[in-house]
Design goal:
- It is built from eleven helices and eight strands.
- With about 220 residues, the protein is α/β, with parallel strands linked by helices.
């Protein structure tokens, strides 16, 4: 039942809904923008006896067999998840190939915003951690924008602007960390993928739980 509801519900909060429900700090910081915060998380899996499955699911970052799933959160507190992939995939590859950027493009082109008497497309501003290589993929899907902490090369120091900018993005993304925690509260997800787990059902629970959580818990932002 919850999966059917999720499939029929809009994936994202509409622009006007997001603005009317978000706290004042978001309105002042991202006035006229359509920000969405994205993150990845690992979902523990058992060690597969099949060597191919073992290789595909092992993540060097988490140092375990796992699945990886994307989580998003908008300033109004609306959150959601997208499909879980095998843990060996990189965050950048997942970001480029999963398809959510195309979904966001389609959403922003339908959810037109009246500005100065004209209906216009307000592009998504994707807020990522610094590990993502996402700018080109976002631009290729409806010229979406990307905001990330500045990346510091090993032999260089941040200037004042980079320090303030990176700290601001990191502070804003704190709420998305809470969204990650909420998305893994479902019993079957918190226990991880077991040897008797059905992958289709497991992914369905992963997708459905965060949608359901929007109506069960206080908003994460």
């Amino acid at each position: 039942m919850f999966r059917r509801c999720r499939d029929r519900w809009p994936m994202f909060a509409f622009f006007d809904e997001d603005k009317s429900l978000q706290k004042d700090k978001w309105a002042s910081r991202y006035d006229g923008m359509r920000p969405v915060m994205w993150d990845m998380t690992g979902i523990t899996a058992y060690a597969f006896s099949n060597s191919d499955y073992q290789r595909l699911t092992f993540s060097t970052y988490y140092n375990e067999n796992c699945f990886k799933g994307g989580i998003f959160c908008q300033p109004c507190g609306w959150m959601g998840t997208i499909n879980a992939w095998t843990g060996g995939v990189s965050d950048s590859d997942y970001n480029r190939r999963e398809g959510y950027l195309k979904q966001q493009q389609q959403f922003q082109e339908k959810d037109l915003v009246t500005i100065d008497g004209q209906e216009r497309v307000v592009r998504f501003l994707n807020i990522y951690d610094k590990g993502y290589r996402a700018k080109m993929a976002a631009w290729e899907n409806g010229k979406q924008l990307v905001l990330q902490p500045d990346f510091k090369e090993s032999d260089k120091r941040f200037n004042r602007h980079q320090t303030i900018s990176s700290a601001s993005v990191a502070s804003d993304r704190g709420g998305n960390e809470r969204a990650v925690n909420v998305s893994k509260r479902a019993g079957l997800i918190s226990k991880g993928f077991q040897s008797n787990s059905d992958p289709v059902r497991f992914n369905s629970i992963w997708l459905t739980w965060s949608f359901q959580a929007n109506f069960m818990f206080e908003r994460v932002l």
